[in-house]
Design brief:
- By secondary structure, the protein is an alpha/beta fold.
- 35% of the residues lie in helices and 22% in strands.
- Helix 10 runs parallel beside helix 12.
- The termini are far apart.
- The structure holds 5'-deoxyadenosine (5AD) and iron/sulfur cluster (SF4).
- 5'-deoxyadenosine binds next to strand 14.
Length: 460
């Protein structure tokens, strides 16, 4: 791992300034996971550093960037659709620059498709090239032609990248990049490259800065936070890092995602139990409740091992809630194997599930596996899964009625005049309150529950 610091590129900023008659505006949109959203915040920071202003409507922009996701086919097709819609805009304003970055661009076929079918796209850049964006823009402006090639993988960890955060009270804090696990269905290791952990001192410095700036909720990010520390010179694991962060004074709480069950430890659970700043919620994606499917997925744990950790967490952290990712219809998943997943979710009692129908990703091992089941079989299974989950979540949420809970007020809720606050256990409560409360902690009495949405009132 090579750690480098971001530096302002004066030359590139000058080329960019000279290209426009008035200060230019950029529109950046990120798809997909929180890691990508955080990358989008850095892209905006780098653009501001290079002289751009930011705008919320792509119609106003001199530069449009789509920061893409490749995890499922549906996400990719959405991007192609949205890029296609920009054709008219480019026809009206030939100086408009359209760029595509993020996970999709790391795949050869995608760049080829953009080159051939989307002639109005000017540039692509990869997942780990955010700091080089001003240089690329200056090159594009100088050369006047399209810069489209599949980005090469780069393994530098770049610190001090300027950032324009979307929120003033909730922040993403990446602790590692990439993934080494090669789950057989997943494209991420191919597009985001091998695991690299940030040095703990860099993470701590950013963490302290966030607390000083008044951030209340800090979510640590990584494809597999539990393998944090691998490859670093210092001897440190994820639980040690959490200990270090929790020593910092201030009024804040910490979340983290994503945990891989094969690397989540009892030490992690003990650390969560020890510090009140660590939320009573664990996102622990199980993917399937069948040991055969887990093996085919290359997940390296069994249902029994998974349940042991869940039961340990339930015992050590009263009131803890769990969430998970589930893939329905992995190639060859039988009816019986699917029912084992239903069985598992009933045993764990997740508060929330992120459910996905298996999507074939070219280049992964699962893409080569035979699959006798139809899409209709899979959507039927999905409906059954959601029904089972809804019953569980409703029951758990009803159990919250009558409690008084400290919440972080996140914003307006659906009903006019109401706010949404997030509990420590990751449930959301809707209550009447003044917008001035947004971004601060308050206490709410929980009075009603509809599936996972709680209703309540401000404590007098
Ligand atoms: N098909 C469906 N779901 C997938 N995921 C990752 N790859 C695929 C795929 N090919 C899901 C997994 C993962 C989540 C982020 O996305 O459940 O945990
Ligand atoms: Fe994909 Fe598995 Fe890595 Fe998660 S842990 S990003 S599912 S390969």
């Amino acid at each position: 791992m090579n750690r480098i610091d971001f530096t302002h590129n004066t030359q590139a900023a000058e080329v960019i300034a000279a290209h426009y008659d008035s200060p230019p505006l950029a529109f950046v949109h990120s798809y997909g996971c929180q890691q990508n959203v955080n990358d989008g915040e850095k892209i905006k920071g780098v653009l501001v550093d290079a002289g751009y202003g930011l705008c919320d409507k792509f119609e106003d922009a001199d530069l449009i960037l789509f920061n893409t996701c490749a995890v499922r086919e549906h996400a990719e097709e959405r991007v192609f659709g949205n890029v296609g819609a920009l054709k008219q805009l480019k026809a009206k304003n030939p100086r408009l620059i359209i760029g595509i970055c993020g996970c999709m661009t790391q795949q050869e076929g995608v760049v080829e498709r953009l080159r051939k079918s989307y002639p109005f796209v000017d540039l692509v850049f990869g997942v780990n090239g955010i700091d080089t964006l001003p240089q690329l823009l200056a090159e594009k402006m100088g050369a006047g032609k399209r810069l489209l090639k599949t980005p090469t993988q780069r393994y530098d960890v770049v610190e001090q990248i300027p950032i324009q955060r979307d929120s003033t009270f909730r922040a993403w804090l990446p602790i590692m990049y990439g993934c080494d696990n090669f789950c057989s269905y997943c494209i991420v290791p191919y597009v985001r490259g091998r695991e690299r952990s940030r040095k703990s001192q860099d993470i701590l410095a950013e963490f302290r800065q966030l607390i000083e700036q008044g951030y209340k909720e800090i979510t640590l990010l990584g494809q597999n936070v539990n393998s944090y520390g691998k490859g670093l010179e210092e001897t440190i694991d994820f639980a040690d890092l959490l200990e270090q962060l929790c020593q910092q004074p201030g009024d804040y709480h910490i979340r983290f995602m994503t945990s891989h069950p094969k690397d989540a430890t009892k030490k992690l659970i003990d650390t969560m139990a020890k510090y009140p700043q660590l939320c009573n919620h664990l996102h622990l994606p199980v993917q399937s409740g069948s040991n055969r499917i887990l093996k085919e997925m290359n997940r390296h744990y069994t249902v029994e091992q998974y349940m042991e950790l869940i039961n340990y967490a339930k015992e050590k952290i009263p009131g803890i809630t769990f969430s998970s990712d589930i893939i329905v219809g992995f190639p060859g998943e039988t009816e019986e194997e699917f029912e084992q997943t239903l069985d598992l979710i009933s045993k764990v009692e997740y508060m929330q599930l992120f459910t996905f129908i298996y999507s074939k990703r070219t280049g992964t091992r699962a893409a080569e596996m035979p699959d006798p089941f139809t899409h209709k079989d899979k959507t039927n299974r999905m409906a059954r899964l959601l029904k089972t989950q809804e019953e569980i979540a409703s029951r758990l949420a009803k159990g919250m009625i009558g409690k008084q809970c400290r919440v972080l007020v996140e914003g307006h809720s659906r009903q006019p005049g109401t706010l949404a606050g997030r509990l420590d256990n990751n449930l959301v409560v809707e209550f009447a309150g003044d917008a001035a409360l947004i971004g601060s902690y308050t206490t709410v009495n929980i009075e009603d529950a509809r599936v996972t949405m709680l209703k309540g009132s401000l404590q007098a």
